[in-house]
Structures are given as C-alpha cells and as structure tokens.
Amino acid sequence: MELRHLRYFLAVAEELNFTKASEKLCISQPPLSRQIKELENELGARLFERNNKKVTLTEAGKYFKEKIVNQLQDLESVVLKTRKISENVNGEYRVGYISSTFSDKITKLVQFLTEKYPFLKIKLYEVSTVKQILALEQNKLDLGIIRAPLISTKIITKRWFKDSYSLVFNNNLNKNVESLLDLKDNVFVFF
User: Which of 18, 59, 97, 130 measures 20 to 30 Å from 25, CA to CA?
Assistant: First the structure.
C-alpha cells in the first residue's frame, strides 16, 4: 500500500464520484479505478459499492476513511515537524539568566521564541554572569542574559535592555545628602 493509494481513496470517498475525483486528482478515471481496486485487493475488503448511478462507501469503507483521515493528519504533522527540525527551529534552546533579571523580560523572551518557533523546547537556567560566559564559550548555553561588562572574544553581545536602579536610604542616617558623591564612602547592601 502506497501513500497515493490512500490519497486516491480519500478523493473518491469525499466526492463519491470517480469522474469528479479523477478531475480533482488530475489523473484519468481508468487508472484511478485501477488504483482503488488494487487497494481493495490488498486490504481484502470492498471499500465502495459501485453502480452506474452512484458510488457509496461500504461499512468497511466508512471505517477505513475515518482511520485514514486521522493517520494522514498525523503524517502531515510529522512532515511539518521534520521540516522544522531541518530548518533548525526545533530541538532544545538553553537560555541562561542572572537572578536580577526582571521576570517580565524573561516571560516576553519565552513568548517571542514560542510564537516564532512553536516546536522549540526552551530551557531556562539561573546562572551567574561568570558561569554563563564560560557556558556560552563551551556551547552549553545558546543565549545568556548577563550583566555587562563582558570580556570574551568568542561571544557576540547586544544590549537587550538597561536596568534602572534607585538608591534608597534613611534620611535620618544620612543628613545633608545632596548628591550621590556625598555617599561615596558609605557602605550599602544592594542586590
């Protein structure tokens, strides 16, 4: 049994007319009839009742049609996924990020990648900048979200976003502060 037999069968089953099915398939009617007969012989079951006035599906034909439609849909999905794999948009994509990365940035990145590459499996790893650089150089990560500066000749970088931080302090402890330079010798705990 070949794939064309199944496609020919489905065309006849949908049209319930050999002439219309042959036109739809762009083949002449005698070869189509011969292919359907070969399929029926191979299955050992009649799929169609034929007479001069009409063509109908037998019970076996109805069952076969139902199952073949599902199988061909699965096959189309397999073909599509195979094509995506060959286009390198399938598989696993490993993304490293630092703990201070805002979760909405990571969420937007994952949404973007998922929409653009629906067959891509994205794995997220929380890793320090130093370890990410090493993992990127060794191809253990595909993308890294790190804090600048980066010193590596093996990695291409682009700025994705710029963090904005605020310095918050207790005015009672630091009176007479008019600029950040006034705090240069103070000790702070920060993220």
Answer: 59
What phi and psi, each to the nearest 5 degrees, are found at residue 30?
-60, -45
Q: How far apart are CA 79 and CA 34, in angstroms?
A: 28
> pLDDT tens digits for 2-43?
888 898 999 999 999 888 999 999 999 899 999 999 999 999
Helix (H, G, I), strand (E, B) or coil at 124: strand
Summarised one tens digit per residue, pLDDT across range 94-120 is 999 988 877 788 899 899 988 888 878
Instruction: At 33, give phi and psi (nearest 5°).
Output: -60, -40
- Walk across the sheet containing 91-97 and list its strands: 120-126, 91-97, 143-145
**Residue 153 DSSP SS3:** coil
Burial profile 21-41: b = 16 or more Cβ within 10 angstroms, e = fewer: bbeebeeeeeebbebbeebbe
Question: Strand ranges (DSSP E) for the chain?
Answer: 48-50, 55-57, 91-97, 120-126, 143-145
- Report how far residue 164's alpha carbon sits from residue 125's, in angstroms, rounded to the nearest whole number: 23
